[in-house]
Specification:
Strand order of the largest sheet of chain A: 2-3-4-5-1-6
Order of helices and strands of chain A: EHHEEEEHEE
Largest sheet of chain A: 6 strands, antiparallel
Number of strands of chain A: 7
Oligomer: homodimer
Distance between the termini of chain A: 31 Å
Amino acid sequence: GFALGRHITIEYYDCASDVLLDKDRVESILLKAARESGATIINSSFHQFEPQGVSGVIIIAESHFTVHAWPEHDYAAVDIFTCADNIDLDTAIHSIEAQFSSRRVVISSDQNRGVLPSGVGGCMTNSDEK
Amino acid sequence: GFALGRHITIEYYDCASDVLLDKDRVESILLKAARESGATIINSSFHQFEPQGVSGVIIIAESHFTVHAWPEHDYAAVDIFTCADNIDLDTAIHSIEAQFSSRRVVISSDQNRGVLPSGVGGCMTNSDEK
């Protein structure tokens, strides 16, 4: 079959908790990874929780990046959903690994999304680029 | 082991394309589903693509809802990531199914995220609720 998207989920264990405590750092790390992967960033929304924790989402023209960080567990969950072949996932995964100083990275799933019997794919185009 | 979160991915095939074409409808459907599931909505961000397509994210206190809709394929990909036991996932899944008029729903994955050897869990608290 033909798939519209690819979705990978990544577990970052044993991260530097001081990084995960800081919403602005987590946001800039995710934005940097998205940029380095070749994604076209449309917008981002990050939220700081109390007493700690960060959730964030970047909508890209090619779908999304999300992160949920639990500094108290030195852990962050990252998802990357992409509908484009030209996104360099390895670059994004390793960029985040380095910036979070994660000592154990697990790609917990890598799946096709929107599996169609046949068809012609390709990403949606950003209306802002018309 | 102990898991910090639960992440399910849902494929909605054979949807009503007129619904998927409309960003505002897709956003209100996702917000309604999140509310009905018992989630605490923090913010939402939805984007209309041209010539068609919608991407959207809702950050909830308990993690996130995301959607990517391909009206030309009558298909939408939805993810729900939650760190709370009190979120009613079935209610959310069926609410979206009914509103999208999807005739084929596939729960393509249901996984634990952030599996720790032991520990005490619970969600992050929203700083706005302090």
